[in-house]
């Protein structure tokens, strides 16, 4: 029975009630539906259900990813257009960074990582200079 409900039984129960009405889980315990039917209902839950969000670990849907991809593409096209039509003496714009997505490091985490990289590079540089100058 627990295999049917998976790792997030509360989300599954809420989705069963939301999408199929009544209480299919209670109906199973009362013997009104079979375990097979309960499994079929759980497997038929849509990708935007609470169960899918709990399983993925975030609330992003396919549309959210598509919107982020579209935003990134528009920024790239805009940058390419501006660079293609700029004054030849002017500096080109930098390419934009991709939008944040679930699983990516948070912006404050990346700034700390970059600071650590800079400090490590600075220490390596000072070590080379000290060896080259005999200091």
Number of strands: 0
Order of helices and strands: HHHHHHH
Query: Fraction of residues in helices?
Result: 55-70%
Number of helices: 7
SS-derived structural category: mainly alpha
* Major beta-sheet overview: none
Q: Categorize the overall geometry.
A: elongated
| Relative strand content | under 5%
Q: Assembly state here? A: single chain
| Cα-to-Cα separation, first versus last residue | 72 Å
Number of domains: 3
Q: Which regions have little confidence, pLDDT < 50, spanning 5+ residues?
A: none
What is the C-alpha radius of gyration, as a whole number of Å? Answer: 27 Å
**Overall pLDDT metric:** 89
Region (Disordered): 93-119
Polypeptide structure, described:
The model has no long low-confidence stretch (mean pLDDT 89). The protein has helices at 2-5, 9-20, 24-29, 35-43, 50-56, 62-84, 107-133. The chain is elongated, with a radius of gyration of 27 Å. It contains seven helices and no strands. The protein is mainly α and 135 residues long. The protein folds into three domains: 2-56, no CATH class; 60-103, no CATH class; 105-135.
Quick structural summary:
Residues 93-119 are annotated as: Disordered. The chain is mainly α and 135 residues long.
